Amino acid sequence: MNPATALATVLVDELVRCGVTDLVLAPGSRSAPLALAAHAESRLRLHVRIDERSASFLALGLAKRSERPVAVVCTSGTAAANFHPAVVEASEAGVPLLVLTADRPPELRGTGANQTIDQVKLYGSAVRWFAEIGVPEDRPGQVAYWRSLVCRAHQRATGPADPGPVHLNVAFREPLVPDGDATWSESLEGDASGAWIRARVAPPASALHIPPTRRGVLVVGDGAANVRRYVAAAGMAGWPVLSEPTGGGRYGDHAISTYHFLLGDPEFAEAHRPDVVVTLGRPGLSRPLLSWLRRAQEHIVVAPDLTRWPDPTRSATQVAQAVEIPIASGDDAWLSSWRQADHAAREALDQVLDSHGLSEPRLARDLAELLPNGSLLFCGSSMPIRDLDQAMRPRRGLRLMANRGASGIDGLVSSAMGAALAHNGPAYALIGDLTLLHDQNGLILGPREPRPDLCLVVVNNDGGGIFSLLPQAALEAPFERVFGTPHGVDFAYLAAASGLPYTLVTEAEELSRALKGDGVRLVEARTDREANAAVHAAMRDAVRDAMRP
Q: What stretch or stretches form a coiled coil here (predicted)?
């Protein structure tokens, strides 16, 4: 089966699974895969109009009266532009429309190719949501991506608080018609449970009640809300809690702080597949955790805003504004197994860190332990937050923050300054050297400006340390210049130029003394990228060995 036919077949099928009953089509060549899929779908009522403007207003009328989303399809170029008046009307009137515009593939854009214009975010702020689907490829994972995308589009168009039009731009490469071959790298059908859509969204303002089970897990990612309530409920239910540092749930007896390494062990991950996972916030730091989530039988995402729910693994089975975690009867074997493994892994990790001198994960672990209660710790978005996730023990009394929305390294010095100014207590930041250089102007404070109590702890490995832990590290010839990016900056001079107190840390035992002081100050810890990669490998190996008594 050619990719265009596969994508169109799945998109139309998922529209029907979501509840769409009417599709309006304005004929054209590039939209042929969608037209043929819609024509072949007996569960759809198909409407064809030769004028795109007329077609889009027909869809508007259908959706307005039925109060249900209606799909409208056109080809590329000015055909898509002719949808704009109806899209604007639907936006202002709150009418749910699913606008699917066919497009040329990226290699034809900007070349003067026939019927090719810039259709990315063509309707601007008139749509509630926009997505560029991307050119389809015959590889596993595409079907889940396509279905999840349509599900999100349908939910966002529906509202329920703010219904309106959404725009999916669908790029197709030729061939555009079926080629008679029905083979594909994965099934084009929906998930094995037979659910109409992968994510079943609960009604707003109502809590989702789940059956009692001892084999549950609470996962807490960045930006989570009502964390204390859910951690307490998980504790009553006998569930382990897997919380990222900025999730705010890494405390108490149920906190499993070594989950990154435990779930990286295939035997442990397989033996600890839960009946249900409840996710708060946006998990995104640990690849083993994300891989484990993909295999969860039941994955419930708690999202205060049902128009946008975090699901980076596209494995959510239910989405709700709130979930009731019931108390289940039975023994504590499930939780005990997690805690025993966590204890063994923690001992193994600490032994590695304590025997390797001043390493980046040890710096993160020790810093999180040394800070007094009531402190704020602002984390860099690259390696510092990951080192904290992998090395930080559970503790209370510490507020951790990071710019994990888009996870960029830009503006982090200024962000930390602002957070410190708003925090009632001492503030600290753990950032990388490139992060500091990217926003070194954030160190400049005029003589009359409010000055926060902020200690900037900078890990200086002379470049982009995270790349030494990624596959790019195997590219020996170009690696250092285009990924390692050494800078050779002496931060003592940078601190002097900004008038900041400066301390260099070369031994782990020096950190506690270096943190003392007040006002804005800079503490530099110099590390080596290759040695850091070796420490991370040793941590992984030590936990693996600890799991094999």
A: none
